[in-house]
Amino acid sequence: MNQEQWTTVDDYFSRTLVPSDEALDATLKASAEAGLPSINVAPNQGKLLHLLARISNARRILEIDTLGGYSTIWLARALRSDGKLISLELNAEYAGLARKNIEAAGLSQQVTVVVGAATQSLQKLVDDKAEPFDLVFIDADKENNAEHLRLSLLLSRPGTVIIGDNVVRKGRVADEDVNDPDVLGVRKCFELASSDPRLDTTAVQTVGAKGWDGFSITVVSAG
Ligand code: DHB
Ligand code: MG
If you measure from the C-alpha of residue 128 to the centroid of ligand 2, how many angstroms do you get, rounded to a whole number? Predict the structure, then answer.
C-alpha cells in the first residue's frame, strides 16, 4: 500500500460522496494562494466532522485552530441558524483570511474567529463562563494538546464530543524513540484521556490524501 493508492481512494470518495462546492473550493484556493500550510482536513474528513456535529446535534462548536477556515465551514454547516461556532487561531493573517472565506460561505452570523494563543483564548472563555460546547475539534499546536483538552473539559458538559486531529503522525505516536514535542503532546493528551474518569476515548488510524494519521474521539460524562 502506498500514498498514491490512498490518494486515489480519497479522491474517489470525495468525487463520489463529497460534492465539491464553490465556498469550500474557494477557501482551499485562497488558502493556497496566501501560502498557508496545506494541512487542511481532506474533503472526506471535513465531511466526517460535519456528520459528527450533526449526529451529536451540536448547537455550540469550539474549534482549536482555524487555519483558512476549511474545517470551520464544514463544522459550521452542521449548525442551525441560531447555532454558534467559536474558532481559535494564533495567526492574525490566517484569521483574516478565514473570516473572508467564512463570510463568502454565508456563515459569518454563526462563526466567530478569535485571534490569540489557544490556551489563552480557552482560559478567557472559561473565565467568561462561556456556555458549554457540544462538540470540540482539537487540531494544531500539538505540543499543547493536553492543555487544550484540559481547558476544553472546563467548557464541556456531560455528552460533549471532543475530536482530536493528527493523533498518529505517521506512527510516531507509538514510536518510543520519538520524543518530539508534538508527539509528547498527543501522548499527554491520551494520558489525561485515560486517567480522567469523565472521559471515554478511542483513537483510530486513517490513511488517505494526507498520509498516515488518525483521529481520537472522546465523550464527556458526569464521571
Ligand atoms: C500538521 C498539522 C495538522 O493539523 C495536520 O492536520 C497535518 C499536519 C503538521 O503540523 O504537520
Ligand atoms: Mg490537523
Answer: 27
Name the nearest CA neighbour of 161 among 84, 221, 73.
221
pLDDT over 90 for what percent of the chain? 97
CA of 199 to the centre of ligand 2 (A): 21
- Residue 65 CA, closest ligand 1 atom number: 4
d(CA 96, CA 142): 22
Q: What are the residues whose beta carbons fall under 8 Å from the beta carbon of 10, sequence distance 6 or more? A: 42, 43, 44, 208, 209
What are the tens digits of pLDDT across the range 160-211? 999 999 999 999 999 999 999 999 999 999 999 999 999 999 999 999 999 9
For residue 136, is it left (φ>0), alpha (ψ between -120 and 50) or beta?
A: beta
The dihedral over CA atoms of 29, 34, 40, 44, expressed in degrees to the nearest 10, equals 0
Cβ neighbors of 29 (< 8 A, separation 6 or more) are none
**Which residue among 10, 39, 143, 163 is best mutated to probe the pocket of ligand 1, counting the most ligand atoms within 8 A of its Cβ?**
39
How close is the Cα of 187 to the center of ligand 2, in Å? 16
State the Cα–Cα distance between residues 65 and 94, nearest whole angstrom.
10
The C-alpha atoms of residue 107 and residue 113 are separated, in whole angstroms, by: 11
CB within 8 Å of 51: residues ≥ 6 apart: 78
